[in-house]
Amino acid sequence: MDMPDDLKGLLIRLLDRIEAVAADVSQIKADVSQLKADVTHIKFHHGERLSAIDARLDEQRQTINALIPTRIAAVPPAAE
């Protein structure tokens, strides 16, 4: 049984659209994969930077803590 020409044309256009959508989905999947890789890279580098900042802050805390008793001892008691 032969299909009418208008249905054949409609089916061909539908199949073309499906192929175009499949190509778009493939491109979106590739873009998402690249974005995931970029986010992983950014997280790694920010983690390193945060670790360096944390170490520096810890060093500064230790310095300040070491200076506090010296500063307190250098201040004469308040006159009453």
Give your account of this protein's structure.
By secondary structure, this protein is mainly alpha-helical. 88% of the residues lie in helices and 0% in strands. The protein has one helix at 5-74. It is rod-shaped.
Whole-number radius of gyration?
A: 34 Å
Given as residue ranges, the uncertain stretches (5+ residues, pLDDT < 50) are none
What's the helix-strand series? H
Number of strands: 0
Distance, first to last CA? 113 Å
Average pLDDT, rounded to a whole number, is 88
Q: SS-based structural class?
A: mainly alpha
Task: Provide a count of the helices.
Answer: 1
Tell me the strand percentage band.
under 5%
Described by the principal axes of the CA atoms, the overall outline is rod-shaped
Proportion of helical residues: over 70%
Report on the biggest sheet.
none
Task: Record keyword descriptors for this entry.
1 helix, 80 residues, 0% strand, mainly alpha
Can you summarize this structure?
The protein has 80 residues and is mainly α. It has a domain of 35 residues.
